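Next up, sample data:
>
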Amino acid sequence: MSEEEERVSAETTSAASMKIRGFSTFDIALDHKHPEMQRRINELESIIERLSLEINDIRNMIETAPLRIRLIETKEVSVVKAKRMIMECLKTNEIEYPDDIADYLGLDLKVTVEAVEQLIKEGKIKEKEK
């Protein structure tokens, strides 16, 4: 490239530095001979800014949302044993839902639901009316 071509190139090209949420900085060479590229870069900058704002909104929602997390260690029992445990539990507790029964007794939810369904079919407990 001749000195004249380098001078013209330097005059028609400038550099823009972009910082995205403090993670990285990179330079984009903007060639003023290509306005379509400049338009596209501007669109991308706008999209990045909108996404950054949306991420911040989501982060704020997560930080302020009331979360209820409980870790429950479950016992592995058969459906037959779960039915006995549930019947004993219901004699002294007023628990209405299978997930609450499972939590209270430390049983697997799938086993608890199956046991409750069998107890209802056998007529030993009644399904709560909606």
User: Anything to note?
Assistant: The first strand starts at residue 13 and ends at 20.
